[in-house]
Prior knowledge:
- There is one protein chain.
- The chain has helices at about 5-25, 30-35, 35-40, 125-130, 180-185; strands at about 70-75, 80, 90-95, 95, 105-115, 150, 160, 170-175, 175-180, 195-200.
- It is an alpha/beta fold.
Amino acid sequence: MGADQSNRLDRRTLLWSAAAGLGAMALPARAQEQTESVMAVAQSPVRNNVSSFRMLDWQPYFSNLRNGAVLVDITSRALHFWSEDGQTYLLFPTSVPLSDDLTRRGRTEVVQKVVAPPWRPTPAMKERNPEWPDMVPGGAPDNPLGTHALYLSWTYYRIHGTHDTRKIGRKSSNGCIGLYNEHIQQLFPLAKVGTQVLLI
């Protein structure tokens, strides 16, 4: 890595850490306690293609936190999670669908949790890409669902990991919401079958 690139990474890390620190100082004390996990994400290594996003409160989007709540903001390309007791708040960058016709918005819920999920293209995907395999087994390095997946009540829609980290922060999916594998691994044990999900 050249000196210019190293300096650029150091400046990005500094700016990201400074922005996260200023945001934390502006929060009430209770919110600061709840944002430890968010700050851990903010202090992780800087990655390309991560869009800007901000912390949100759950009340404008959900009437309660029964079973926890996930909000996916397609515009800011961010996933927000609140635990049922309100003590855990996570904020992750995501990939989002390529186009509006692939995008589904509204309320759904987690109906299944799968470790090492197998991937099967939808009929529409197979029609567009007949050369694609009928199935990629779970755990395969080229599996588009990564290490873990939360299946939603909408057919074919998932919140899942990805091995292709270039997709995060971009319009790059066929409808699903993608996370870095390490982020879906953090979210997976906290989300329950029945966790509320809202895509806006």
